[in-house]
Amino acid sequence: MGALNTPSHFVGLDAARRSGVAGFGLPTRRALAASLSLAVAGLFQLTAAAQGPKPAPADVSASAAVTTPLPAASAAPAAAVAPAPVSSGQAVAPPTSPLGPEAAPMTDEPVLEARLLKLSEELRCLVCQNESLASSRAELADDLRREVRSLLSEGKTDQQVKSFLVERYGDFVLYRPELKPMTWLLWFGPFVLLLGAVSGLGWYLRQRRKLADTAPAMSDAERARVDQWLKD
Amino acid sequence: MLAELGHFALILALLVACVQATLPLWGAWRERAAWQALARPAAFAHFGLVALSFAALTACFVNNDFSVLYVVQHSNSLLPTVYRVAAVWGGHEGSLLLWVLMLAMWTAAVAAFSFSLPQAMVARVVGVLGWVSVGFLLFILALSNPFERLLPAAADGRDLNPLLQDPGLIIHPPMLYMGYVGFSVAFAFAIAALMAGRLDAAWARWSRPWTLVAWLFMTFGIGLGSWWAYYELGWGGWWFWDPVENASLMPWLVGTALIHSLMASDKRGNFKAWTVLLSISAFSLSLLGTFLVRSGVLTSVHAFASDPKRGVFILMFLVVVVGFSLTLYAWRMPKVRMGQAVSLLSRETLLLANSVLLVVACAAVLLGTIYPLVIDALNLGKLSVGPQYFNAVFVPLMVPLLVIMVPGTVVRWRESNWGELLLRLRWVALAALGVGLAAPALAGEWSIGAAFGFFLAAWVVLGSVQHMVLRWRQPGQIGAAYWGMQCAHIGLAVVVAGITGVKSYEVERDVRMGVGDVVTIAPYAFRLQGMSEVKGPNYRAVRADVEVLKNGQPIDRLYPEKRRYFSTAMPMTEAAIDTGFMRDLYVSLGDPIDGPTPQWSMRVYYKPFVPWIWAGVLLMVLGGALAAVDRRYRAASARTEPMPAGVAPQAGA
Amino acid sequence: MKKFLIPLGLFFGLVIFLALGLQRDPHEIPSPLINKPAPAFSLPTLDPKAGTFSPAEMQGRVWLLNVWATWCVACRQEHPLLVDFAQRHQVPIVGMSYKEIQPQDVQAQGMDATAKLQFARERSQVWLSRYGNPYVLSVMDLDGRVGIQYGVYGVPETYVIDKQGVIRYKAVGEVTPAILASKVLPLIQKLNAS
User: Fold this and answer.
1) Cβ-based contacts of C24 with chain B (< 8 Å)
2) Are A126 and C144 inside 8 Å of each other by CB?
3) Cα distance between residue B114 and residue B102, in whole Å
4) Which residue from A8, A179, B85, B465 has the fewest beta carbons nearer than 10 Å?
């Protein structure tokens, strides 16, 4: 085997010392590991700080679309200030940066829309080729999103919205199958399979041990001869 | 004329494939060297004919021959030439021809690069591949002929689906098919070995480089597909657990188990039954994928137009190929003796655990993919199984896999010591824990999911780095396979870090913008500078000019478009992406909004860590390539068998 | 060595399901509203003078609800069958004009609700007078919300509703003579007898 194969990859303490790798004792390795982790953590910090995004601040409040910067508008959130003439009734000055007026969100109710988005990712577009309600552009998808939006704004919970749709369109409309006897195999199957496979593996290893233990002992040379013979 | 030539070449190829599939196998069985020697020339002739046929079809596309039905369905006179070529595999018939071309190519490659193999073995391998070719060629000629004429000829074609008019179409299917089809080589080796009744470790060593190359192409193909969906669909999503995506993931998972199992079979003569079964399964899953995608049993955006007759044919082909293989397996395997005992903590055990986890993951994906079919077939109604299910089931299965990746490379064969293992890895574990705890806090909001994901990624990376450093200090040469392994493992860790990062920290802003408006996702800002109308070769588009600033300084200009192709009514979104090392900035243009001032709906995404996903995939591909070119596989002279498993190598050897 | 036959066994199990799956249509969605009460609604009718209609008005009779639109090609194909059916049998058919105004109707986009309703009514009237009117009356579901209540996901669709107002059958897509003869008519006869 020797030179043809790459050597075994395991290097224990003894092996390290035996191979004469100088100074590779415990303290060195400790230092190595510590500096490595510091380096990695430092790298993360560096790069993370370089972009340092925090999720969008909560002062993304609605305002009517304004394309000219309001005079003396500051980035003050939440203050209900009566805006310039074009108003939708939601009265907050749009935050402006020195670069220009901040674009208004597509909808007037970001919280509701966020809920809608999350919920519609779990719902299936019924007339598409496997697309979620969130990403589909089909007309029925638009209608269903509108329906879901109105249900959510009435105060329905996510579960109630899902039930509403399932009552009318069946389980097909849910991307996350509900847990019921029909889907037990689906939800529990993989883990049962894993348990089965792992215990099968354990059993198999034990079998091999037993077989080796009960088999008459052979010398290495004998075994090599038998192997060679079996191969031909 | 060209179409008929292509058609004829295909018929000839079928005939040659029939010869290729029968005589060499007969010769191997009857030990007739002359018949065996037919394998190589048959493989080359087969390849030549299929290549000719493919070239003919390509020429039909390039020349805008609208008397060929397939060309009419998938091309258009305004289509740029490069897409006319790619359109060859844009539909069902042509993509099957690509499949067959790849198969012929792999077969010819095996015939060409197998001088160290005994002739009987080559004969069997090429023969088995011949059977697969016969099946596919029959399918094409009988039910999916790309050369069918449309008479009278159409004035122009229906155009290639605009979603496909993208560089992605040029490269993704060929790479993916190289992988899908490449697993047929491992399959053929396994069947050949079963037929011969010889499952020595040499078989594993021969099979390994071929399987590695197939695996790396598969990895590349899947990664490309994911990246293409990401930038093309305008939503920044990159994996949807769609049945067609799953159809490519399943053989990949089993293929990964296979390359690890082959290593054990190669070096230690272990796990023969398991490796053979994996070899058969990987290609069977490729065939199953073909069935799922082309038969119409499952709904998918990626599915080809289906015809029940085609589904029946593919299913019968699947039954014949896989049924035969598994029967042969059941018949021959009992004759092979079981390997010898190993301790609970040993490389064998960990490799088996690797196989088990990957196969269970594959089974979970299969279960989720066909469950709707099963429920419908049992008349229990219709249900959907979507990404939420797969994520919930797949991710927990991947966690132990990532954990055992590090000890897997550390432990010895046959027997290893818990104490030594823990001692060696304790600093890696602690450092990874440190990274896991620290990184999320630095990247944004701290969450346990992000922490865990980063911990796993760091565990693998640091473990690999430690391993490499220690190995470097050891005497003895290090083969390319070693670097390949570490590179691929690190690549996977990078992918995991990328997925963790983007899922935990991506920000989406859905806004209406007029000219001059700004969207801020600190520290970036996106300002709409203007809108314009653009004309492309076969479309008209509205284009936005978006300036990207960081901390107030302009860093890039993005031009998202909304295109209207002449051929379809459906508008297409072309997102614009600014890619950096640590993040992508993704802008997607929506529809104009009615209002007092002109405005457009825009979606702006900040996606941190997403480039790491693709970078990690590339690292995995590189790792596979390095492993495949290891000198052990390239020596032309006959190699001695590895020592029988009973003789333990010296420590450190 | 039976354990080596396990993969083969599993494979054949899989094949059986795949073969069964080949005979199914993955796009067809069965309705969960079968044997459930037809959702109540109140919609304006096609005839402006007739006011509104609600399903409760059909209590005591077995009737059909047919979802249609003038822009729907399959509706045009099934229409003669419906006309014939209405003439031949004593089963009232109520039409539901579903989303008559489409995004491509640019002239209707700027209109207000009343004008849109008027526009839809006119277009539907023209269509019906051209192709025949099998409906005792037709309601206008312009925004499709009532359609969602009924689990409508395409046009045409046809419901069979019994005397108590319970949905007993749904046909997705155009009705064919085969469906009418084998499914719809026997069911109506059975429901009428009870």
Assistant:
1) 297, 373, 376-377
2) no
3) 18
4) A179
